[in-house]
From TrEMBL:
NCBIfam families: HTH_metalloreg. Keywords: DNA-binding, Transcription, Transcription regulation. It holds the Pfam family HTH_5. Residues 1-95 form the HTH arsR-type domain. This is Transcriptional regulator, ArsR family. Signal peptide: none annotated. The keyword Protease does not apply.
Length: 122
């Protein structure tokens, strides 16, 4: 991992939205898709870029993949958390994502139920 790879990974709106909702904890890729309103292909592309830059860690549980911030990278590059925090406080889009995340967590739904379309954020 190098600094330029990290900076390039941070230079995309969708990737910043992903980091915004992951700042408070781990999420499954299907949860990320629903909360951000993006398709699986788009989510995977951005998650791969963040994982390759070692900004995110992931773990597999059965058919699900869970992502979280890589704490080693957060310690090495302190500015990442600052960038996430600053952007999320200033933009209405990040605030909307946070509201959807909050509603999702309060719903008690599982990934299987999300795949069945039981939660809608229109």
């Amino acid at each position: 991992m190098n600094l330029m790879q990290v900076i390039k990974a941070l230079g995309d709106e969708t990737r910043m939205r992903i980091l915004n909702i992951l700042k408070d904890g781990e999420l499954c890729v299907c949860e990320i898709e629903v909360i951000l309103g993006i398709n699986q292909s788009n989510a995977s592309r951005h998650l791969n870029k963040l994982t390759n830059a070692k900004i995110l860690d992931y773990r597999k549980v059965a058919k699900y993949v869970y992502y979280k911030l890589n704490e080693d990278t957060m310690r090495e590059y302190h500015f990442i958390k600052e960038v996430i925090q600053k952007n999320t406080m200033e933009s209405k889009y990040y605030k909307k994502d946070n509201e959807r995340l909050k509603r999702y967590r309060a719903s008690g739904l599982t990934c299987d139920e999300l795949k069945d379309g039981k939660l809608c954020f229109n």
